[in-house]
Write a structure and sequence with these properties.
The chain is about 40% helix and about 20% strand. By secondary structure, the chain is an alpha+beta fold.
Amino acid sequence: MQLAATTQWLDDVKFDAHGLIPAIAQDRETGRILMVAWMNREALLLTAERQQGVYFSRSRQKIWHKGESSGHTQDVHEVRLDCDGDVIVLQITQKGGIACHTGRESCFYRVLTPEGWQIVDAVKKDPEAIYGSAAQHDHSHADKAAVNETIDVLAQLGRIVQERKNADPSSSYVASLYHKGLNKILEKVGEEALETVLAAKDASETDTQDLIYETADLWFHAIVMLGQFNVQPQAVLDELSRRFDLSGLVEKASREQ
């Protein structure tokens, strides 16, 4: 990307009343939208000069260099301005393949379905491993929904399982399990539990993909099992929450009594 000899080009940019303009970061190779942030005049100039993604944090009221905390910087290959002059699009290469503070490739990881918002992108890296438990994330547009997304996924899965109980068994795997009855469902839970154990035995600290995959299968079939009795995953989460302040030995003894 060749930078103009002067900064006169900045005069064509229509910043809003707060001196800001939205900037869309798009993967240069795939065209996927990775994130949206804000720039002021200084951030846009620094982005062009450094050929790196530099933004303005509205919450902290300061310039931030994308990746300054995470190491996931952005190489900027091209800066585009829309016809009205009030939106910037960056053609970038995302270092580390992670643009979102949730540890995903893109901030746009939820898709609207008839059942509501469905998370369709996996977490590539635990955010705590990226930022630390107390670190401030890069994104000023982070929202509270991301904090509870794990619970949302389980709740949504529970709803979908219930909705598919009476579907056509020939078109729905979940419906086919319910059609075959409880024994078949329990057989699958046992089968997935064994595969999870075997994956754990073969796993290492640097290779856990099979373990994650098999655990996901186990959780899924356990939710199908709960659905046989119209039990939502939240009931299990509530029970786990109840045990937070209990000694494991005390809790086990209370069940035996």
